[in-house]
Amino acid sequence: MHKNPVTIGPFESVGRAAALMNQLKIGGLPVVEKGKLVGIITSRDVRYCHPNRLVADAMSRNVVTVSPECSFWEAKETMESHGIERLVVVRDGRTVGIITKSRLYAEIGKHVDALTGLNRAEFLQHKAAELLQSGQEITIIFLDLDNFGTIDKEFGHVIGDEILQQVGKILKSVIAEGLDYLCRYAGDEFAVVTVRPLEEAKQLSWQMIKALADARWPQGIKVTASAGVAGGRRSRVRGEPNGTRNVRDLINLASLASTKAKREKRPVVVAGWVELEEVG
Q1: Cα distance between residue 265 and residue 254, in whole Å
Q2: For the residues of 184-248, what is the DSSP string, one character each?
Q3: Helix, strand, or coil here: 129?
Q4: Shortest CA distance to 154 belongs to which of 224, 218, 226?
Q5: Which uninterrupted H or E stretch holds 28?
Q6: Confidence tier at 244 by pLDDT (50, 70, 90)
Q7: How many angstroms separate the CA atoms of 199 and 24, rounded?
Q8: CA dist 252 to 139, 191, 256, 263, Å?
Q9: Is the pTM here over 0.90, yes or no?
Q10: Is residue 7 scored above 90 in pLDDT?
Q11: What's the DSSP call for residue 36?
């Protein structure tokens, strides 16, 4: 966010607001009266208002705000759901920053894997924590390609990268939007958080494994994977914000299950369903 943004008072002129925005090359100003946020005025507002009018006459009074602890993805969802291009960041009723759409999207872009176009692990952790906090049961599917290091050594990293890109496309074609959230976790590891019940999530993991096994790969390479599945529901708050520790526990369970699957040469191992209960 832009910290300590320039603000304007409600009884200053629209012309003054326009001049400030033009001078600072910004598209909006929080409107503050006696230290409290009372509105926001944008370049669009001033465009259709006489410069001698008061800011209070042109500003929007229903300002959408977020806290400084808001995550990138929460800010994005808030911005998109309200159809706005900036969010005012407020702490204890006072304006401490402003988030613009262009800057937010640039930051989120840093959390998208450049090779596959999938979200990275941070998104999975955020989404899983958000679902747990809303009281939903979730299941993590952790999927690890088999012998990928050997493929890289025998066929080179260019072919390895092509395979990872194709894996991303195949897994994306199997999941369902609104139910399953896919990411490239790291290297040749992919993960899904889903709101499907454990048994359905297990079936989804089998579909993912089968889709990879049935696909045609560069140079006739055979690509297989091992998956671990772990589901859970948070029943108490642990004292850690956003339930991130619970999420890490669940991801770790699924990851260990995928390792066991690989070791035992089984496509899928289910770690089970756990009650994520602990008092902080």
Answers
A1: 16
A2: EEETTEEEEEE-S-HHHHHHHHHHHHHHHHHS--GGG----EEEEEEEEEE-S--SSGGGHHHHH
A3: helix
A4: 218
A5: strand 28-33
A6: low
A7: 56
A8: 12, 11, 6, 16
A9: no
A10: yes
A11: E
